[in-house]
Amino acid sequence: MTTLPTRVEVRAEMVASVHTIVGAVGDSVEAGDTLVIVESMKMEIPVLAEVAGRIAEIAVAPGDVIHEGDLIAVVDHRP
């Protein structure tokens, strides 16, 4: 029996500006890998993959202003 991947949404924890997109759709990631770097209060903060898998979506672009709860990325979790 084949198990379909579980999609894990990565959401913003604070108001910030998107500084750099590190990952790309289709990239394999491990838990703890940096997906995006955001800037808040003149600090660069990495946004990390919470699970290992493949990046299914990057929902932000450099320069975007994000708010708490906004979708940043989606990772298809590999069991």
Short structural summary:
This protein has 79 residues and is mainly beta.
Description:
With 79 residues, the protein is an all-beta fold. The protein has a single domain (6-77), classed as Beta Barrel (OB fold (Dihydrolipoamide Acetyltransferase, E2P)), CATH 2.40.50.100. 0% of the residues lie in helices and 53% in strands. The radius of gyration is 13 Å and the shape is elongated. It starts with 5 loop residues before the first strand and ends with a strand.
Question: What order do the helices and strands come in, and which of them pair?
Answer:
Elements: E1 6-11, E2 16-21, E3 28-29, E4 34-40, E5 43-48, E6 53-58, E7 65-66, E8 71-77
Antiparallel strand pairs: 1-8, 2-4, 2-7, 3-6, 4-5, 6-8
Residue-averaged pLDDT, rounded? 93
Classify the secondary structure makeup into a structural class. mainly beta
Total beta strands: 8
Strand sequence of the main sheet, in spatial order? Answer: 1-8-6-3
Integer tally of domains:
1
CATH homologous superfamily - what is it?
RNA polymerase II/Efflux pump adaptor protein, barrel-sandwich hybrid domain
- The secondary-structure element order is EEEEEEEE
Describe the global form.
elongated
The CATH class name reads: Mainly Beta
What percentage of the residues does DSSP assign to strands (E)?
Answer: over 45%
